[in-house]
Structures are given as C-alpha cells and as structure tokens.
Amino acid sequence: MANDSHQRAAEFHELAAHAHRVAAMHHGKEDHQTGHEHAKQAMEHSAKAYQRSQEALEQSAMFAGGQGTKKH
C-alpha cells in the first residue's frame, strides 16, 4: 500500500515538473498568458504531489512501526 502512495506522489511530481518546463518555454517565447496557465497548473500538481508525499510518508512510518497490517 505504501508503495502505491509513493508511486502516486512521484507521478504528481513528474506532472508538476513537466508543467513547469512548458510554462518556462511559453514565457521564453513571450506567450505570458499560456505560460501563466501552465505555471498555475504546475503549482496545483506540486500541491498534490506534496500531499501525496506526506500521505506516503505517514503510511511508511506506520508500516515501519509494526503497524503495517491493514485492518478491515
């Protein structure tokens, strides 16, 4: 389970990095409106990545603490 959380967090980090690169490319071409839209999207992905990373960290800590069994 914790592995899934780490994977999802990594996916959001990749999405954020891609959006940042696209935003920079548009800003470099003086297409500021499109660049701004991509920068906003990058920030949203970064926030999701941070949230998922925190969740994965908490799950890993629970697992490492001997509480790794899932209760139904």
Report the portion of residues in β strands: under 5%
Order of helices and strands: HH
Shape label: rod-shaped
Report the mean per-residue pLDDT as an integer: 80
| Number of separate structural domains | 1
Rounded to an integer, what's the Rg over CA atoms?
17 Å
Structural class: mainly alpha
Helical segment count: 2
Helix fraction by DSSP (H/I, runs of at least 4):
over 70%
Poorly predicted runs are: none
User: In oligomeric terms, what are we looking at?
Assistant: single chain
Write down how many β-strands occur, each being a DSSP E stretch of 2 or more residues: 0
Distance between the termini: 14 Å
Biggest beta sheet attributes: none
Jot down its keywords:
72 residues, mainly alpha, rod-shaped
Task: Write a concise synopsis of the structure shown.
This protein is mainly alpha-helical and 72 residues long.
Question: In words, what does this structure look like?
Answer:
About 15% of the residues are buried. The longest helix has about 35 residues, at about 30-65. The chain has helices spanning about 1-30, 30-65. Helix content is about 90%, strand content about 0%. The chain contains 2 helices and no strands. Helix 1 (about 1-30) packs antiparallel against helix 2. The protein is mainly α and about 70 residues long. The chain has one domain (about 1-65).
Describe the SSE topology:
Elements: H1 2-28, H2 32-67
Helix pairs in contact: 1-2
